[in-house]
Every structure is written in structure tokens, then in C-alpha cells.
Amino acid sequence: MRNAARIILESTFTESSTMFLLQINGTLKGLTPGKHGFHVHERGDIGNGCIDAGGHYNPRGQPHGGPDDLQKHVGDLGNIIANLDVTFKRLSLIRFHSIVGRAIVIHEGTDDLGRGGDEGSRIAGNAGARVACGVIGIVVSFGILCR
């Protein structure tokens, strides 16, 4: 992850082979205490302080929402804290609406999950400035190729 405040995210993304479930396990270091908005953004361009990543990934044209809402952006992952162990429904690394090559962004404040009652809430959850971002990619391990 790239940022000015030295926030470091070490994580593993694991996708279920039978359901549309994506589990993310990891540890965040350098993040201020409390909840922080966590989203997949449109582009894997993390320049200009993460601004070049664009808006939340929203291929279905839905309003902003929480991770378990039926109507939400594909990239709406809700909020995280420093220790990350979450599973997201209807999110995929390699299947329909893949998030590989897109940016993952951590925001300064809490995402109100589209329930704030104003335009900022309906678009992006009023989570504040982008404090860290990185590009989602696949790393191939060449440990054991055959037995």
C-alpha cells in the first residue's frame, strides 16, 4: 500500500472455489485507532495521493451501501480496524466483476454505509480523505509444482 503516513497492510486474499466469497486476512500498521472506510476503487492507478484510483468500483450502477446490502457498489467493503479478518459476499478476484488490477483504498474516517442522509453518503459513505492505497494483484507461488 502507498501513502504518506507509512501505513502498511500485509494481507492475503482467499477466494472460495464454490461460492462468491472472498476472505481478506491481514494486519495494518500505522493506522489511527477507530474504524476506516475500506473500498475497491475503479482503477489500479494509485498516483496523486490515491485520487487517480477514481471512485468506488461500481459496474452495476448501484447506490453506496454496506458490505451485506443487496444494493451497493461492488467495491463497498464497509469499515476496517487495524487487525483485518473479514469475508465479503459477492466479491471476486477472478470471476464476474473481478477486482484484480483495481485499487484498494483505506479512508481517514468511518464509512456511514450510505445511511448518512446526504449526497456524500449516497456516493461514497462520507469516509473522508484517502490515507492509503495499493493495487490488487495475483502473486504466483512456485513452491511445489508437482508431487
UniProtKB/TrEMBL annotation:
GO molecular function, one term: copper ion binding
Keyword Oxidoreductase annotated: yes
EC number, as in UniProt: 1.15.1.1
Domain Superoxide dismutase copper/zinc binding: 12-136
Pfam families: Sod_Cu (PF00080)
Matches recorded under PROSITE patterns: SOD_CU_ZN_1, SOD_CU_ZN_2
Keywords assigned by UniProt, alphabetized: Copper, Metal-binding, Oxidoreductase, Zinc
Cofactor(s) listed in the protein's UniProt record: Cu cation; Zn(2+)
Catalytic activity: 2 superoxide + 2 H(+) = H2O2 + O2
EC class name: oxidoreductase
Co-factor binding details: Binds 1 copper ion per subunit.
PANTHER family (alphabetical): SUPEROXIDE DISMUTASE CU-ZN -RELATED (PTHR10003)
Described function: Destroys radicals which are normally produced within the cells and which are toxic to biological systems.
Family to which this protein belongs: Belongs to the Cu-Zn superoxide dismutase family.
Name of protein: Superoxide dismutase [Cu-Zn]
Species classification: Eukaryota, Metazoa, Ecdysozoa, Nematoda, Chromadorea
